[in-house]
Specification:
alpha+beta; six-stranded antiparallel beta sheet; 9 helices; 23% strand
């Protein structure tokens, strides 16, 4: 009788040992699969999130650049209207004395400055020297701008947005008489036109939009001191040469780079009709909480499934 009790106890211990081994083995296998799956899921979700964000930023920066283009075209149309005024060129069919022509031109320039909100507007001869102007117009046009104005013989926008320690958009247009360029009209619009557009582009909590020229110098920024101090893309992006090399090629695209240990997403697009490029920059951390929340939810669901799986394996082990 005692031997039978001993045999029964031994069999129970054997079953417990076998059940424990099965449970441990199954649990370890499931945990290994879950760990590998979670790792793959986290890496995949991070990569997918980056791809989606960059793909979303590129159409956004292109649309924003078109908004800037539209405002620039509006300013250009106004300058063309001024240049096409026959009172400026003296081609209205009336013979006027020099004094009368100067007076009429002054009236036209004064009216244009008031209507179109210009810092200054002036007429220049074919050598870039001041003929007549208002609002403290410079005596001579800046050489690179004047060279481009002569070369294109059409509407030209200055690459810089700084005018006499103020921010403004300088535009020049040839004035034609009998089909030939007789002089140039150059005006400086107030910077508000660009500032309103750039400041209205809000992406994420710390995202921003700004403009650079071909040299990478900031020409438009929510912080006007960045423009006045002629900060460069190298400086605000901590010397990231790769970003600048893509921006100034005139392509529309997006990239990611590291700055002080933070991942930054950047999209860029040229502003047609100018030598400027629009850049939208947003820290990846602005969207990390959404990505992390999605990953946490997925991991919790996986752990719940794991717990159910272990319970099922345990019941199976007991039945064995």
């Amino acid at each position: 009788m005692k031997e039978r009790k001993g045999d029964s106890r031994a069999r129970r211990e054997m079953r417990r040992s076998l059940s424990g081994r099965i449970l441990r083995s199954a649990a370890l296998n499931v945990l290994a699969v879950v760990a590998v799956s979670c790792l793959i899921m986290v890496i995949s979700m991070q990569s997918l999130a980056n791809s989606i964000l960059l793909d979303s930023l590129q159409p956004m920066v292109r649309q924003s650049s078109k908004t800037v283009e539209a405002n620039i075209h509006m300013l250009a149309d106004r300058m063309m209207t001024i240049a096409g005024d026959t009172r400026i060129s003296g081609a209205d069919g009336f013979q006027l004395s020099t004094e009368e022509l100067v007076q009429i031109r002054n009236e036209v320039l004064t009216e244009a400055a008031e209507i179109y909100e210009l810092y200054t507007i002036a007429l220049y001869d074919l050598d870039g020297r001041l003929i007549q102007g208002i609002g403290n117009a410079p005596e001579n046009l800046e050489s690179s701008f004047f060279g481009l104005l002569k070369e294109t013989d059409n509407l030209t926008t200055h690459t810089s947005t700084i005018f006499q320690d103020k921010l403004g958009i300088t535009m020049g247009m040839p004035v034609k008489k009998d089909g030939q360029t007789s002089l140039y009209v150059v005006g400086v619009y107030k910077y508000d036109t660009l500032n309103d557009v750039i400041s209205s582009i809000n992406i994420g909590k710390n995202g921003m939009a700004y403009m650079v020229n071909q040299e990478g110098i900031i020409t438009g920024h929510p912080d006007s001191s960045m423009v006045k101090n002629k900060k460069t893309l190298y400086q605000i992006d901590k010397g990231n040469v790769t970003v600048l090399s893509h921006v100034i090629t005139g392509e529309t695209g997006g990239t990611e780079f590291s700055e002080d240990g933070k991942q930054i997403l950047v999209a860029f697009s040229p502003i047609r009709g100018t030598q400027w490029y629009l850049v939208i920059q947003v820290p990846k951390s602005d969207y990390n909480h959404l990505i992390n929340a999605a990953i946490a939810a997925a991991v919790l669901c996986t752990m719940a499934v794991l717990a159910v799986s272990i319970l099922l394996v345990r019941r199976l082990a007991k039945s064995i």
